[in-house]
Amino acid sequence: MQWIISLYITMFPVILAGVFNMLFLKIPFLKSRCRPIDGGKNWTDGKRIFGDSKSVLGFILMTVLAGLLEVFWGFLLQGLGQNKRSLLYLYFENAPSFNFLIGMLFGFLYMLFELPNSFIKRRLSVSAAEQGDGRRGLKLFFFILDQIDSMFGIMLCLGILVHLTPAQILYAIFLGGLTHVLVNCLLILFRVRKYL
C-alpha cells in the first residue's frame, strides 16, 4: 500500500498537468491557436495522420506545465519534509533543475505515447467521440488504450529511473489507467469533457 501511495505522490504533477492542459486548451484565445501536429496532412491511405485533437500547442503546453508543476511539487514536499514519499527522491536530489527536466520529460512522454493510438484510430476511422462506431471489439480496445497509452512512456521511464520491476511497471500502468478514468469522470461531471 505504501508503494502505491508513493507512486501517486510521484506522479501527481503529471496528472495535474494533464488536467490543466485540457482546461487551458479550452480557453478561446489558446484554442484558436491550436495547430495540428500533422499539419492537416493525410497519410498514404488518404486519411489524417493524427487528427486535429493532437496539437503543437497542446504538446508544448503539457511538457512545460509538467515541468513547472514538478518544481512546485518538489518545493512542497521539501517544505513538508516528505521527500522520501516520492519514488524519485529515493534516487535523485530534490532540486529545481532536476524537477523541471524530469517533469518536462514526463510531460513530453505523456503526449508522445498518445500519438500511435491516434495514428491507429485514423487508419481504422475510429472517431474520438464514438470510439469504434458500434464495433464492440474496437470500442473496448480503444477505450482501454485511451486510458493507458500515455502511461506506457512515463512508467517505462520511471521504471528505469527508480528500478521498478516489470510487474511493478505493468501494475503502475494499470493504476494509471484507472486514475485516468476517474479523473475523466470528474471532468465530465464539471462539464470540462463530454465523454470518457
Which properties best describe this structure?
CarS, 7 helices, mainly alpha, 0% strand, transmembrane, 65% helix, single chain, 196 residues
How is this structure best described in words?
The protein is mainly alpha-helical. The protein has one domain (2-189). Helix content is 65%, strand content 0%. The chain has helices at residues 2-24, 28-31, 56-79, 96-112, 115-123, 136-162, 166-189. It is globular. The model has no long low-confidence stretch (mean pLDDT 90). Keywords: Membrane, Transmembrane, Transmembrane helix. The chain crosses the membrane at residues 6-25, 56-76, 96-113, 140-163, 169-190. This is Putative integral membrane protein.
Please provide a brief summary of the model.
The chain has 196 residues and is an all-alpha fold. The chain has helices at 2-24, 28-31, 56-79, 96-112, 115-123, 136-162, 166-189.
State the shape: globular
Q: How many independent structural domains?
A: 1
The largest sheet, given as strand count, sense and whether it forms a barrel, is: none
N-to-C terminal Cα separation, in Å? 28 Å
The helix/strand order is HHHHHHH
How is the secondary structure organized here?
Elements: H1 2-24, H2 28-31, H3 56-79, H4 96-112, H5 115-123, H6 136-162, H7 166-189
Helix pairs in contact: 1-3, 1-4, 1-7, 3-4, 4-6, 6-7
